[in-house]
């Protein structure tokens, strides 16, 4: 039940991340292939890097519904990018849901492969945030992830909560629910109140 | 026989892609190591990503003649880049041959590892086009692949033709020949008639 | 004994590369997460790519002290970046020590996995230099590695020396010491006398 909800949120996150990739392609005046490639890389890039690092089969080789979701989303966004722009104020919130889902899933997968807790938290962050990092690099933009935004930090906090419950308290349902909600809440507060991490003092 | 021709075209494609990397290094005023690295990454980058994703041994670890071809090409281009520039109108056509050969080989390898048809087509596109993508990113250029060019799309069409014949009709010789020729033709028509994919309507 | 010294130099190199990543984050006005991510990627990126290509377990999954070194270095640099800037003239020299250590270790690991000598030298270069390459790409800077600097070339020469002694003369202690010293010397001379590789003649 929790597993199925998480699965649904994972699909949702895939579509949302694909939208952010496609909108970037739109901003950069790319063509349809640019939309497809940038949307797909944004949606599956983080999980792909996680799987390569953990030496497990890349998830979308068998679960290719993720590719279909990303491709369909890219095509839809290509033809209807105007409404996406007009209503873009919901987009960061949808992105936050994807961030939270991907973070929990990445941490969970790493723990299930007996990664140590620190590695597991890292894998959650990478799953959630490195797709967007690749998107920004391919588009020639300064990576959002590295600049003044509560983004990876939300995944960091949520991942720690997940590991705390799943690894040390051995309470996996609470880990999924709380890991997800805490990531979402931290990111949501960041969006709502324009929270930033400080830059270095000079 | 067909296998040997494809092998030859693969070597040719490796050299051509290395030339495009080296010419980019030249444009960016890089030094000899820049030529070597950019040429090599362009020539073997796509196949490397394919092999990592499919979890098979990276091809140039054992078939290191590819490294030699890329390195020699880089050095030659370093010393004789002027003629390459003067005669650069043949370069997109040579590049198209490389694109077609790499596409067929990438699709073939993926199918031989029992990847599903959609994945196989993706692997063909990545083998053919992601070396150039890395080249552009390292050089700080907007990736050609993502912009208004029939490039990855040619590999997409050729890959579908390959899969159609090899996977569904089980006729592998036709698959190689037609996959190659269709990729070459689509890309060639794109070059000749300046075909572009549309950007999103705004 | 030699092994322990090399291990110590490896830790030192990890910290120094993390400093260069953190200083880049500082220059680009990134936040704390930017410092952490860029420092870590610079410090462990080269070795990670090496391990993925050689299909061996990524080293920091088990030896996570490397992550701790990178993270602590990033945080320290975040709070005390001023002195790093003021005394930055020692930094290229410290970086040269890291380059030499990483080069020897990368070459050694590749040879221990029966890679052929050319591949082993490549792996040394990648271990030593690709972390910095990723740093520059993420920061949107022209990669230092590809431009007019004796950098990868120092690792190339040192790697050849290493392979010469370890693979052909079977004298591994001399290989470590000479591979390290030659890389350091070539890079050091490059820094001291502003040696550059030539760009292509135009």
Automatic annotation (TrEMBL), chains A, B, C:
Keywords: Cell membrane, Membrane, Transmembrane, Transmembrane helix. Signal peptide: none annotated. The chain crosses the membrane at residues 32-49, 61-81, 93-111, 117-138, 150-169, 175-195. Residues 9-81, 93-166 form the Glycine transporter domain. It is found in: Cell membrane. It is a multi-pass membrane protein. GO terms for cellular component: plasma membrane. Belongs to the UPF0126 family. This is Trimeric intracellular cation channel family protein. The lineage of its organism: Bacteria, Pseudomonadati, Pseudomonadota, Gammaproteobacteria, Chromatiales.
């Amino acid at each position: 039940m929790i597993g199925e909800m998480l699965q649904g949120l994972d699909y949702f996150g895939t579509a949302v991340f694909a939208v952010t990739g496609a909108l970037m392609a739109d901003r950069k005046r790319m063509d349809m292939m640019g939309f497809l490639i940038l949307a797909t890389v944004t949606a599956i890039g983080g999980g792909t890097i996680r799987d390569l690092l953990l030496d497990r089969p890349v998830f979308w080789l068998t679960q290719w519904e993720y590719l279909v979701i990303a491709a369909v989303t890219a095509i839809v966004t290509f033809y209807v990018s105007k409404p996406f722009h007009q209503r873009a104020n919901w987009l960061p919130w949808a992105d936050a849901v994807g961030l939270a889902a991907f973070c929990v899933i990445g941490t969970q997968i790493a723990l299930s492969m007996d990664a140590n807790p620190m590695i597991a938290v890292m894998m959650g962050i990478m799953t959630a945030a490195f797709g967007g990092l690749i998107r920004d690099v391919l588009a020639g933009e300064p990576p959002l992830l590295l600049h003044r935004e509560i983004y990876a930090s939300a995944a960091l906090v949520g991942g720690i909560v997940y590991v705390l419950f799943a690894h040390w308290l051995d309470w996996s349902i609470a880990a999924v629910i709380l890991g997800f909600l805490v990531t979402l809440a931290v990111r949501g507060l960041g969006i709502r109140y324009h929270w930033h991490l400080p830059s270095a003092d000079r």
